[in-house]
Amino acid sequence: MHDEATDLMNTLTYTLGVIVNSEGDDRQRLMNAYEEAQAFAAGIALAEGSAGPRIIACLERFKAYKAAEDIAAAAWMLTAIEARIAEHELAGWQTLKIVSDKAASFLRPPRKQMH
């Protein structure tokens, strides 16, 4: 039986590994791609409450980057997964959100500290 939540967790775990194991220019490339993907996805309207159009658009970008063997593909996949999790329809979506939030935390610029 097909279990979307398990499939998403497997993909998310792989994506987290790509992110965590990136360094230097690759990490910066991922950070830039994630920022771009987040803005791109936010600019796409929901379809009757469904993030489907956002997910499809991000997966299309993911496929293009993956075909070019560009590490930025991971940022687009993460954004697509986050959009699906945000629908709160999957069994165990809370656990998926914890892992996706952790992955995203590696791609956000460090917070400025107050002195």
Secondary-structure map:
Layout: H1 4-20, H2 24-42, H3 52-67, H4 73-85, H5 93-105
Shape: globular
Averaged pLDDT, please? 94
Which range best describes the helical content: under 10%, 10-25%, 25-40%, 40-55%, 55-70% or over 70%?
A: 55-70%
What quaternary form is this? Answer: single chain
The helix tally amounts to: 5
Largest sheet descriptor = none
N-to-C terminal Cα separation, in Å?
Answer: 55 Å
Low-confidence stretches: none
Beta-strand percentage range: under 5%
Tell me the radius of gyration. 14 Å
Number of strands: 0
Order of helices and strands: HHHHH
* SS content category: mainly alpha
Characterise this structure:
The chain is an all-alpha fold and 115 residues long. Helices cover 68% and strands 0% of the residues. It is globular and about 40 Å long. The N and C termini lie far apart (55 Å).
Provide keyphrases for this structure.
5 helices
Short description:
With 115 residues, the protein is mainly alpha-helical. Helix content is 68%, strand content 0%.
